[in-house]
Amino acid sequence: MRIVHCALDLRAAVDAARAAGDSIAFVPTMGNLHAGHHSLLHRAREHAGFVVASVFVNPTQFGPNEDFARYPRTPEADAAGLAAQGCDLLFLPGVDEIYPLGAEAAVRVHVPGVTESLEGAIRPGHFDGVATVVAKLFNLVRPDVAVFGQKDYQQLLVIRRMVRDLAFPLEILAAPIVREANGLAMSSRNQYLDAATRDRAGAIHATLLAMQAAIHAGTMQRDQIEAMACAQLEQAGFLPDYAVLRRADDLSEPVGDERAGLVALIAARSGRTRLIDNLLIR
Ligand code: PAF
């Protein structure tokens, strides 16, 4: 696996792969890679001969009181893991490469609608930062496909909407959530949790499954299911920011007794750590 730090070297490597007849798959990440990220790479590999990953902790998607400074940075381990997973090229840019005039002065991409609720309401500006950096990375890498985890469900919808509206010439693929044995969705932020909290955090997935079961049973109203989910999270020692059922295609609120095409989404805090998870209701 080759590692490049600047746009010029990235472009040359991608152009050479394309000239050799390969299609290009791209997996953008913020590093501190775990099995969840590795599954994104496997999905990328299924769709292209040449797999590019990026590791960049993007300052513009963190709020002033969020964990940008303490976000885990493990570039050597990330590179070793990516090489072991068969990644062909790792793009490891510095902040200047992505934001030449500084992160504050950067042009922003704003996706309306789907960014306004849930994570967007709680983390103002977060999705502008995500859309901005992903647009920039797409223009640098120019992939045929890009892979995003379903774990960040709202982010996935934001990226799909941006790609459609700005006519980026690539396909977005979603990779399923990878879970620990107790159901906890894999996340770089899980390492902030002590062992006991990590055990208890299995309750988040259990709550999503309970929400799905309640939808299937058909005896509770949606607001009752959401209240039950919040209570279940609180019992497990988590402070829920939300536990909701939304339309899976745009996260709008279902009307009346709509029970098909839904997604259950949870954000819950334990101390300073905030975990998110979701489940597409089958
Ligand atoms: O999901 C992430 O890790 C980040 O939001 C992304 C897509 C790499 C943009 O910084």
Class per helix and strand makeup: alpha/beta
Strand content: 15-25%
The CATH superfamily of the largest domain turns out to be HUPs
- Rounded mean pLDDT is 97
**CATH architecture descriptor of the largest domain:** 3-Layer(aba) Sandwich
Tell me what the structure shows.
- It is built from ten helices and nine strands.
- Helix 6 (126-141) packs across helix 7.
- The longest helix is centred in the middle third of the chain and has 16 residues, at 126-141.
- The protein has a six-stranded parallel beta sheet with strand order 1-4-3-2-5-6, with helices on both faces.
- The mean pLDDT is 97.
- Strand 8 and strand 9 (273-280) form a beta hairpin.
- With 282 residues, it is an alpha/beta fold.
- 39% of the residues are buried.
- It folds into two domains: 2-175, Rossmann fold; 188-280, Pantoate-beta-alanine ligase, C-terminal domain (Pantoate--beta-alanine Ligase, Chain: A,domain 2), CATH 3.30.1300.10.
- The radius of gyration is 19 Å and the shape is globular.
- Bound molecules: pantoate.
SSE topology:
Blueprint: E1 2-4, H1 7-19, E2 24-29, H2 35-47, E3 50-55, H3 75-84, E4 89-91, H4 95-98, H5 118-122, H6 126-141, E5 145-149, H7 153-165, E6 171-175, H8 195-200, H9 202-217, H10 222-235, E7 239-247, E8 262-270, E9 273-280
Parallel strand pairs: 1-4, 2-3, 2-5, 3-4, 5-6
Antiparallel strand pairs: 7-8, 8-9
The chain binds pantoate.
Pantoate is lined by residues 28-30, 58, 61, 130, 133-134, 152, 155.
